[in-house]
Task: inverse folding
């Protein structure tokens, strides 16, 4: 008897048990060894069981049973393309996070080894601070120069208008170009100021972590 016709999970299990009870032990053993595996899955809300898995059910979640009706495996449904893409994105994010943790730990160990004292660590940051402060000063001077040039050009345009003369095309183009230059200087200065604030935060965090690691190293050496 075959289970190729679709039937419920309970029917399949009861039928298998009945057959096993109706034959001799030797015959039952031979039947189990030669029997077919049963697959059960949901098809549009209906529970379906068969000894053959059709192509349109391959990606469905299913339970697999032995010929005697014992569940042997639970197969989850195949992921959609969107779910696979999300899973890959999450896996990459987790990999980056794990790498970041490992890299941070490596930098912290190097920090403790490289700097004998907090003063050494502060001097290391002082070099970076000096560079960014110099860049900020240069940008501020550039903004002042760009603003003076723009005011001069605007003054010339205003004089032409007062004399009821049209503003020359070349002058208008220079005014626009100077406006752009001034804006670029201002945007650069804004980024530099933000970078300066970030360095201060990094220094505070580094000093705090340095103290923690030094204290842990001291406690470990005493134990």
Result:
């Amino acid at each position: 008897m075959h289970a190729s016709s679709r039937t419920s999970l309970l029917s399949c299990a009861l039928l298998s048990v009945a057959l096993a009870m109706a034959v001799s032990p030797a015959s039952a053993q031979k039947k189990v060894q030669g029997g077919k595996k049963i697959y059960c899955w949901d098809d549009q809300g209906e529970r379906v069981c068969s000894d053959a898995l059709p192509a349109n059910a391959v990606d469905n979640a299913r339970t697999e049973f032995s010929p005697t009706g014992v569940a042997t495996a639970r197969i989850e449904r195949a992921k959609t393309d969107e779910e696979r893409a999300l899973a890959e994105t999450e896996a990459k994010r987790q990999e980056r996070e794990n790498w970041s943790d490992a890299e941070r730990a490596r930098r912290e160990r190097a920090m403790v080894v490289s700097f004998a004292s907090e003063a050494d660590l502060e001097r290391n940051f002082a070099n970076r601070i000096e560079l960014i402060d110099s860049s900020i000063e240069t940008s501020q001077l550039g903004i002042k120069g760009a603003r003076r040039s723009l005011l001069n050009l605007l003054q010339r345009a205003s004089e032409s208008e007062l004399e009821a003369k049209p503003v020359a095309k070349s002058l208008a183009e220079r005014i626009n170009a100077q406006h752009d230059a001034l804006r670029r200087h201002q945007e650069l200065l804004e980024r530099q100021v933000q970078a300066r604030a970030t360095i201060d935060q990094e220094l505070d965090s580094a000093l705090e972590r340095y103290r923690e690691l030094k204290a842990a190293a001291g406690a470990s050496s005493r134990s």
Notes: The chain has a mean pLDDT of 78.
